[in-house]
Amino acid sequence: MFEKVLVANRGEIAIRVMRACRELDINTVAVYSDADKKALFTNYADEAYHIGGSHPSQSYLNVEKIVSVAEEAGADAIHPGYGFLAENPKLPKECEKRGIKFIGPSASIMKTMGDKIAAKKLMSKVGVPTIPGTEKGVKSVKKALKIADEIGYPVIIKAAAGGGGVGMRTVYEEDEMERAMESAKSLAKSVFGDSRVYIEKYFEKPRHIEFQVLADEHGNAIHLGDRECSIQRRHQKLIEEAPSPIVNKELREKIGSMVVNATKEIGYTNAGTFEFLYADGNFYFLEMNTRIQVEHPVTEAVTGIDIVKEQIKIAAGEELNITQKDVKINGHAIECRINAEDPLSDFQPCPGKITGYRSPGGIGVRVDSGVYMGYEIPSFYDSMISKLIVWGRNRKEAIVRMRRALSEYIIIGVKTTIPFHKAMMVDPLFVKGELHTQFVDQHKKRIEEEMKKIIEKDRERVSRQVSTFLPPKKVAAITAAIGSYIAHIQKKGENK
User: Fold this and answer.
1) Is 252 a catalytic residue?
2) Which residue in 181, 266, 281, 306 has a CA-CA distance of 20 to 30 Å to 191?
3) 132-201 matches 4-103 in CATH topology
4) What pLDDT score was predicted for residue 479?
5) Which residues are registered as beta bridge partners of 482?
């Protein structure tokens, strides 16, 4: 087992990895930017090293600096977390060159699966169903129009090197194609340094379902069941749950066996996720994430398996001590991403100082967070504050428990997505499990009206709870701020 692991990330995922290391009796090394000097994860680690400026390019994306710090600190391995360098093959390649173990797949497999065109072609080869469309990059508008005629409109243009919804353009009619192609290629070039794009059939209201896999370096591989991630905004997930409300035992075993076989066929090792679109009763491969997922806690909650600890043990050369028969899906889990965003203003980021903070607790509740009262949320990184995860014996109990946990969660000083999640937990269609990736956009008006009611209703209750951990003057100021926000919402409504 490793003696010391450097975590090449920040925030809640850095602390999550460090917790796993602590349980394995491994010392940890944090790296931090100017903006994260006072971040919680820097103090949680056994050692912390400053690596550069606040902008990611000056710090968390600097491969040379991070690996050099690992050498200086005497770290045996590097865990990338998610985001930043987690799916950049340059990091594992540099680690291999310097004799440091990368906790993740090899650079070559990461490169292949990171290229969406190559990944799709490989999945077709190993028998995983893919979305109708091209298996090569599309350069000309003429070719794009021909493909769209063959598979039928609407179609979606995607960046070959993309991810996270960046650079996607949906085309409903022929005369939209030229502008969409130019826009997608230009954005792909500026963001990923690769202008290649490809075209797929666009499904109007698919479900987003994924399967978690683990594979060791000795040829063993298992899946840990499915997750549903259909509640999204701008192709970014907001709520995840395990298992999916529409995947039964037989379907889970069928798709699970398929992804395990694919994992072995491509020689994949460590933790990975196969993402699918589910439409018209069929699964279609979307992409493979070659890292730990943000939503991994819901799988941990229903299986009892610590995925991050398994990652570390696999990287250390250990064989999986879990067989497929050992994996049991117990109950239901839901995760809400608590972001510093204003859900009533199209989820606009709202960085700032947290002036009041109280997290929920009780049976079946988990909070993965990297913040504290007085912490300043920087504007340079993802807006996530924390992840709230609940477990219940079934989906109904999990939803009720999430409602209760959200009612206990108090974050003052910045606007958050808590009102959105409260609205979703009482939404009749969400409760029924009738989900799809366009849910938030399609039901935007209804969700916003519910959020406004919730904010008004919470005004007095939140003020009472805040008074238990803040001085009276601060409570009065916060109450006034909430009142101003409600007035702003009402005025906004009148303007409309």
Assistant:
1) no
2) 266
3) no
4) 75
5) none
- Helix (H) or strand (E) holding 335, with range, is strand 332-339
Domain range annotation of the chain:
4-103, 132-201, 207-443
CATH 3.40.50.2000 fits 207-443, yes or no: no
pLDDT at 495: 52
Nearest one of 396, 419, 414 to 331, comparing CA atoms: 396
Fold exhibited by the domain 132-201: Dna Ligase; domain 1 (3.30.1490)
Both tokens of 199, joined, read 């075209």
**Which residue among 10, 207, 291, 401 is the active-site one?**
291
Whether CATH 2.50.20.10 fits 4-103: no
The phi, psi pair for 177, rounded to 5°, reads: -65, -50
* 10-residue averages of pLDDT along the chain (496 residues): 98 98 98 96 97 96 98 98 96 97 97 92 94 89 93 92 77 94 90 89 95 98 98 94 97 97 97 96 94 98 98 98 97 98 95 94 97 94 96 98 97 96 98 97 96 89 71 75 78 60
Q: What is the CA radius of gyration of the chain?
A: 23
- pLDDT at 147 (0 to 100): 93
Amino acid at 86: A
Characterize 449-486 residue by residue with b for buried, 16 or more Cβ atoms within 10 angstroms of its Cβ, and e for exposed. Answer: ebbbebbeebeeebbebbeeebeeeebeebbeebeeee
The pTM score is: 0.89
Query: Over 268-294, what HEC string results?
Result: CCEEEEEEEEEECCEEEEEEEECCCCC
Using CB atoms within 10 Å of the CB of residue 349, give its burial: 0 to 12 exposed, 13 to 18 middle, 19+ buried.
Answer: middle
Residues facing 213 on adjacent strands = 223, 272
State the number of CA atoms in the 13 A half-sphere of 156 facing the CB. Answer: 16
Residue in 132, 125, 134 with CA at minimum distance from that of residue 261: 125
Task: Tell me the per-residue pLDDT of 308-324, one tens digit each, with 9 for 90 and over.
Answer: 999 999 999 999 999 99
Give the full edge-to-edge strand order of the sheet including 270-279: 282-289, 270-279, 207-215, 221-233, 236-242, 332-339, 384-392, 365-369
Single-letter amino acid code for the residue at 410: I
- What tokens were used for 178? 């030229």
Tokens of 387: 């992840």
Neighbours of 394 (CB within 10 A): 9
**362 φ/ψ angles, rounded to the nearest 5 degrees:** 95, 175
* Cα 81 from Cα 72, distance rounded (Å): 21
Report the candidate in 443, 454, 394, 397 with the shortest Cα–Cα distance to residue 421.
454
